[in-house]
Amino acid sequence: MTELSTPAPAGRSRGRSARRSARQGGVGQNKHLAVPFITRNIPTYDLLDEDNLVKIEQGADRILAEIGIEFRDDPETVNLFEKAGGQVTKISDTVWNIKFEPGMIREILKTAPERFTQHARNPANSVEIGGDAMVLAPSYGSPFVMEMGKERRYGTLNDFENFVKLAQSSPWLHHSGGTICEPTDIPVNKRHLDMVYAHMRYSDRAFLGSITAPERAVDNIEMSRILFGAEFVDNNCVIMGNFNSTSPLVWDGVSTQGIRVYAEAGQGSIHLPFLLGGAVSPVTNAGTIAQGLAESMVGCALTQLVRPGAPAILAMFHATMSLRSGSPTFGTPESALGSLVMGQLARRLKLPLRCAGNFSTSKLPDGQAMTQAMMSMMSAVQCGANYILHSAGFLDGLLSMSYEKFMLDLDVCGAMHTYLNGFEVNDDTMGISALAEGGPGEHLFGTAHTLAHYETAYWDSAINDDHPYETWSEQGEVDSMVRANGLWKKTLEEYQAPPLDSELDGQLKDFIARRKASMEDAWY
Amino acid sequence: MTELSTPAPAGRSRGRSARRSARQGGVGQNKHLAVPFITRNIPTYDLLDEDNLVKIEQGADRILAEIGIEFRDDPETVNLFEKAGGQVTKISDTVWNIKFEPGMIREILKTAPERFTQHARNPANSVEIGGDAMVLAPSYGSPFVMEMGKERRYGTLNDFENFVKLAQSSPWLHHSGGTICEPTDIPVNKRHLDMVYAHMRYSDRAFLGSITAPERAVDNIEMSRILFGAEFVDNNCVIMGNFNSTSPLVWDGVSTQGIRVYAEAGQGSIHLPFLLGGAVSPVTNAGTIAQGLAESMVGCALTQLVRPGAPAILAMFHATMSLRSGSPTFGTPESALGSLVMGQLARRLKLPLRCAGNFSTSKLPDGQAMTQAMMSMMSAVQCGANYILHSAGFLDGLLSMSYEKFMLDLDVCGAMHTYLNGFEVNDDTMGISALAEGGPGEHLFGTAHTLAHYETAYWDSAINDDHPYETWSEQGEVDSMVRANGLWKKTLEEYQAPPLDSELDGQLKDFIARRKASMEDAWY
Q1: Which of A46, A177, A501, B424 ranks highest by number of CB atoms within 10 Å?
Q2: How far apart are CA B322 and CA A56, in angstroms?
Q3: Nearest-CB residue to A62 (from B432, B439, B455)
Q4: Residue A9 confidence (pLDDT) above 50
């Protein structure tokens, strides 16, 4: 197959290409696929028909009308929903149940944008969220970190910064994410300052802020005002928070207060039920989706009561349970089907959707890890999800960020760029001239059509070994985990921070120093 | 989560279940999913609209009308196509080009069945091929075999029999396949006898016969007449051959003679272009699919000229090329998109489809292997393929059958049973009663709904480790390759051959002995 290399000026070009590839986190021949966010160019995979979708929507409406949602520790949120027509029952001084007439929440959601822009400090990296736009972000929230050949350890700020740098180095992510791993060496009440600083300093993409306490959310929004300017922040989304309901059917005060902080500032929020079927949602798929829809819609609706038009993202995290061990399982076929349905429901509701990602319960980036990851990730892109958190690094049932899995997942994210680009049919892609050139029995290596297209025709993985067995054997018979290990180390070595105005940097550092000095360390 | 285990009579039931599980190749809690073949209960994933599908069909028609197909060494096939209206140009004494008016091949194909039954010697295992039926079969044609911790080696008859036994032991395959690996210790002109005997003796499922020479196809059909009775074979499909075109645009005489042998006997045939884009088909996707459609349609059409109504399967094997090494690559996003389109084209043509499988170019059952396998296999089930060869064992770009990959792939095949079963929406699956039972904030472990469903609610992998990190660590920190290694060895140990009438067995052995005695060993 040496014919293929003829047209390229062999040695020299390859050397340049390899160096460029290393600088760009293994982008290789695929540079033409790099985009600030993906525009989906293939249809969504629609699983259910109209009748069944309506049944699920009616199920969600029944849950909201007959069982209601419990709110805790946030009377202001209860007031807002009561004024909007919710039927409030006081359970205790800090706990309320609110029931919603069928259709009421949907009505409130009509002011939420179907699609919006989250601005990055580098305007070329601003992302759109909603419609046919798709944004891939790193995994989120693991206390532990894994690295090949070492024991699992608690994450540190150094790990956190490493992952921000690895993400920034890859063209296959579009967003810097949020709590990529917990920096457990920093006090709990101060980590949000260091994490958001790392996103601002080591990445020039959009990012998520703190949700663990309303005052921390305020801090992160203040930092955004320094970086983007206060007026710009008032009028544009530059930061978002990812909020969990407490399933089943509870929104606690830390979450709802945080949601209000982001919405008041005109910033975005994600409203995520984490549903473990059989534990905190029905063990059957339809019920889990109906419940998830109900919980997420209520979170989104709160934003519109605070500030109509504030960006809100519908979300769903669906895990099943191992029948042998009772452990949560990720990347199962039931969750994949659930994602496809959730995509349909989000489009009917005209809200952007966050769901699925490269999930796995494996403790290694092995065959199991990638089987589960692919089952989950294919469903995310096929359902038309708009913001796919957990796109890279997820292992150990979300308890660990893995450096090697991060790189394997980045490669999957890259392949999705090709997949979502679709299948073009025209005279040129039909290539009948190429077949006619040699006729039956003649190979097509040297045809004009092949020469015109071969450099960009196919997805070129930075990690896969597609060599013949003999070459692979000579090169040490390593598996993809070992190659991923080499690639992340090389990428970190070659990482260069995007430029940041030193005055802004100083102001951010001053703000952080003041805030840290203002409070004792707290570890909860 | 101990609540979940309460309702089951713990120890005793689990022991029985574990033993049963071992006998059934790790079916575990999923016994309810076992079926002789899958009936697809989800929609296909339709990538292209009508206009673009028509363009591809017109492209295939143009290829057949303007460039034509080359036939070699089989004047009878040339006669058949000439009589049917093909425009024959003689190129040499053994080579002809035939051009076909647009629509002519489609017209011939109208007598081919949209769906048919391939009978197994155990009638409960007979499969349907076409429509919403899906049949999964092991990988096919590797000269090498791989086993954890050992060097790659040439396959032997012992390996072949092992894979037949492993396939038979799994509920997640429906068909015994064909040349699972090459038994290279048996002379080339005699292996077809031993291979088909192994399928007949160690499996009671349907299988494929020889295609390497027409007289070998005759031998295998004769063996089928012994097993099923001559009259039954005259009237029913009990064996199929998998025939390759010689792309681009050539059907050689060994293939066309073999196709005629199967069709004359009323047996099935698969018509497979093996397209490496840029090498033997256009480097752009649309052209590769158009060419594949043209080549496969012509193979299928030949069967109808020989015996109208003979079962014929449209097929497509699409590999791309690594731009760095020139090696073929499998499980790429381009091929996945191609499969989705091929499914649409097959349905428009009303022919059953074979395509994709658990493809990979990895040399180990690692993360790369399963990423590629999943990209490919998801496309096979989503495109509505009816016969999915290469569903288990494929590594090393089809050069090797891997024992461990076989088991990992079986697990994927099992998950596909759940996936293809779809998403049921009714009052019971909505489970609102379960949510109402405890209300907001209360878990659902002990609800009547959970107890009624939990045993069959979720796919339960036989290989994945979903335990917490600590348990996994105590159990040796092994990866899924190691678990797969243990599982195939245990499965083989516990394998029991399905009963076979000793008289029939004697007749088969006599036939094989006579045929072997009638010819010298040949190694080509």
Answers
A1: A177
A2: 45
A3: B432
A4: no
